[in-house]
Amino acid sequence: MNWINLKISVMNSQEPKGATSAELGTWLRLVCYCAEQENAGTIKAARKWNSRQWMAIIGVTEEEINACTPLWTWEGDALTIWNYPADHQERVERLRDIGGRSAKCKPKANSKAEGGAEGVACATPEGVAQGGPNSNSKYNSKYNSKDKKKDKSTLSYQSAVADEREREWEKVWSAFPKKIDEIKSKKLFLEHTVSAQRIIDALADWSQTDEWTRDNGRWIPLPTTWLGRAGWTEQPPQITQRQKEPVRCTL
Fold first, then answer.
1. Running along the chain, 251 residues long, what does each successive block of 10 average in pLDDT?
2. Contacts made by residues 236-240, CB under 8 angstroms, sequence distance 24+
3. pLDDT at position 182, please?
4. Neighbouring residues of 180: CB distance < 8 A, sequence distance ≥ 6
5. Domain range holding 28?
6. Residue 171 in contact with residue 38, Cβ under 8 Å?
7. Could you point out which of 5, 34, 150, 237 has its C-alpha 20 to 30 Å from the C-alpha of 49?
């Protein structure tokens, strides 16, 4: 999603009023990130991120995330954002799905007609014979115009999807601990249909393994290598870093 609505009634509710300015800013960054990823307001495996990843991906510090606030809560390793507009996300996804189904309906191409007046036949509805009273230039022009509108709608939808994928790449690239050859890496990412959030979560898990942390990250694979072998499908070995205890507080 490219935009969100923050209602006045929401901002005037008890949770925001009781939060500090820093907590409100952190919450807003979390909401914007979740809206871009369309993850329904839950960042899976977020507890496994280190401070560097929080800064690179969200733009906040680990200490700010661990602050005691009702604006976001921990459920195991997942971080859930308060008052995320999940209903708006669902509506956007539904409209996008409708647009995708419409894009699959391609207009029929004109073909050579046998014995026609001008030798060109236009795709017509059932029950209308070619060469009949409706098979004239005005009728053909009407349906060709509709076909052109469908083509424009399809191109517009495809362009919006491509733009969204480009924005997702910026988040994915920022999550890579070793940033080498971005152009080839981006090309590999765009060839896949895997969600950006899945790649980011996988990188967060791998970044805490002994294989990627020892020798100052000497054994971290290049982004092109990792993306080329679909590294997000690989199960990382046991994470050596101790899991942090959940933050507990009384509000």
1. 73 80 87 86 88 86 85 89 82 76 58 46 45 52 58 60 82 92 91 89 91 89 93 80 47 43
2. 236/202, 236/205, 236/206, 236/209, 236/211, 237/209, 237/210, 237/211, 238/209, 239/48, 239/205, 239/208, 239/209, 240/208, 240/209, 240/210, 240/213
3. 92
4. 222, 223, 224
5. 8-86
6. no
7. 5
In the block, which residue shows the tokens 């919450």? Answer: 27
- pLDDT value at residue 21: 86
- 179 and 217 Cβ atoms separated by less than 8 Å: no
- The answer to whether position 220 is within a domain reads yes
Please, what is the end-to-end C-alpha distance for the chain in angstroms? 32
Residues whose CB is less than 8 angstroms from the CB of residue 16 and which lie 6 or more positions away in sequence, other chains included: 10, 24, 27, 71
User: Where a domain ends, among 86, 119, 145?
Assistant: 86
User: 94-103, long-range: CB within 8 Å, 24+ apart, which pairs?
Assistant: 96/157, 96/161, 99/153, 99/157, 100/157, 102/150, 102/153, 102/154, 102/157, 103/153, 103/154, 103/157, 103/158
Cβ atoms 57, 175 nearer than 8 A: yes
Same domain as 181, residue 155: no
Gap between the Cα atoms of 116 and 82, Å rounded: 66
Residues 134 and 204 reside in one and the same domain: no
Question: Residue 101 falls within a domain, yes or no?
Answer: no
Instruction: Give the pLDDT confidence score for residue 124 in this predicted structure.
Output: 45
Q: How far apart are CA 231 and CA 177, in angstroms?
A: 14
Q: How far apart are CA 175 and CA 50, in angstroms?
A: 11
- Which residue in this structure is represented by tokens 């956007």? 92
